[in-house]
Amino acid sequence: MKPGIGIIGTGMVGQMCHLANFAANPACRVVAVADLRPDLAAAAAQKFGVARVYGTHRELLADSEVSAVVVVTKRRATGPIVLDALNSGRHVLSEKPMAYTTAQAETLVEAARRQDLIYSIGYMKRHDAGVARALAALARLRADGSLGRIVAARGWCLGGDTGRAQDNFVMTGEARPDGLELWDDGPDWMPRAMRQGYDNFLNVFSHIINLSRHLLGPSPTLLESAIETSGAARLALDFNGIACTLDLANGANGAWREGLAIDFERGSLTLELPAPFAEQEAQVIIVHDGQSTRPARATSWAFRRQADAFVADIVDRKIPLASGADSVTDISLAEMVYERQAGGTA
């Protein structure tokens, strides 16, 4: 039987990046949506041909045809809703960040493990076809030694235009609702003045950290860090002997600029990422002895590939490319960075 998908949260991202993509997948059925904004939920359901509309996530979780949910709510409400969904026996894809503390994240992972469920986090860039090409090229270059050994890596995220190509969603004038259970937006020791920047760090900059781990190794060591109040940062990570610096900044004018460059002794592999909502693939650039090549790109969208992968993971009982268990590391790294800052060390 095709998985029955429920979408919890029908705002812009819920519709444009999730509802539209799951509705287009013939391997699943979108059977219900839930939102505390009744007019918005009804309008989104009508636009995407969804039969059932619920006012709360708990009402949706009482629907026996829902076997998996996508959680796209305000960030502090994500954890409690995901926990309810996992405890009800539903597979989950949630937007990131999965939580605000390592303890919160581990609670969710344990609930998924206990129920033997698929639990995936919305690091859609891991699903980008260009990223897959970069990962394959990196494995080949490390195996054949044609560029020598890796000597360093550097990543960057300079926020700008998010690349929304079309308004594939509907909106109403309803205010964002209150009444959701919220988890703490940081560990107990974190000063209130740090928390807005920490939220931005987790929401925006965790993507390139997560992607660096995907390409260079799952468990880096934090060497140095410097954080601004806004969440902008400079990090130095050690991936089992490969030093990687990450420069992360907010509010740059113009195009979104994000990527990762891996330097070898005789060349480099660079991955240039599209803006978050742009329906295009990442560009891979390989430099060998001064000669640059760019493997051809096709037309695909990371969000569509992420939706398709979630359905396939449920059907085939596969570990997700961006699993909850793996993504705990991103929360732990963020906590470590901010704990050092709070303690006055680098």
Structure description:
The structure is a single chain. The chain is about 40% helix and about 25% strand. It contains nine helices and 14 strands. A hairpin with a 5-residue loop joins strand 8 (about 220-225) and strand 9 (about 235-240). Helix 1 packs across helix 8 (about 300-315) and helix 5 (about 100-115) runs antiparallel to helix 9. The radius of gyration is 20 Å and the shape is globular.
Strand and helix layout:
Blueprint: E1 4-8, H1 12-23, E2 29-34, H2 38-48, E3 52-54, H3 57-61, E4 68-71, H4 75-87, E5 91-94, H5 102-115, E6 119-121, H6 129-144, E7 150-158, H7 192-216, E8 221-227, E9 233-239, E10 242-249, E11 257-264, E12 267-273, E13 283-288, E14 291-293, H8 302-316, H9 324-342
Parallel strand pairs: 1-2, 1-4, 2-3, 4-5, 5-6, 7-10
Antiparallel strand pairs: 7-11, 8-9, 9-10, 11-12, 12-13, 13-14
Quaternary structure: single chain
Strand content: 15-25%
Computed structural class: alpha/beta
Number of helices: 9
Q: Order of SSEs, N→C?
A: EHEHEHEHEHEHEHEEEEEEEHH
- Give the overall shape, derived from the CA principal axes: globular
Distance between the termini: 53 Å
The count of strands amounts to 14
Q: Mind describing the biggest β-sheet? A: 8 strands, mixed
What ranges have pLDDT less than 50 throughout 5 or more consecutive residues?
Answer: none
- Helix content class: 25-40%
Task: Give Rg in angstroms.
Answer: 20 Å
